[in-house]
Amino acid sequence: MCFSAAWLVELTFKEYELLRFLAASKGQVFTREALLNKVWKYDYLGGERTVDVHIRRLRSKIVDVDHTFIETVRNIGYRFRKDV
Known about the structure:
- The protein is α+β, with helices and mostly antiparallel strands.
- The chain has one domain (about 10-80): Arc Repressor Mutant, subunit A (Orthogonal Bundle), CATH 1.10.10.10.
- Helix content is about 40%, strand content about 10%.
- The protein contains three helices and three strands, in the order αβααββ.
- It has helices at about 15-25, 30-40, 50-60; strands spanning about 30, 70-75, 75-80.
- α1 (about 15-25) crosses α3 (about 50-60).
- The chain is globular, with a radius of gyration of 13 Å.
């Protein structure tokens, strides 16, 4: 995947880490708990809904009318699409 200058977006550190983690494992589904452990590490004491909020914000920043990059896998978690 090649990103052009039109793809420059401002991400927070956690948004970047979340995107980097998901994109490095395209197609693999991660639960909220797994994402908290991998991205936020063990020093985070908040709830799993934090992942939902960060996913929502990240999706809004990398929106493309032709592609959905991050998918919700119902009752499981999230994954970066393998076919983009």
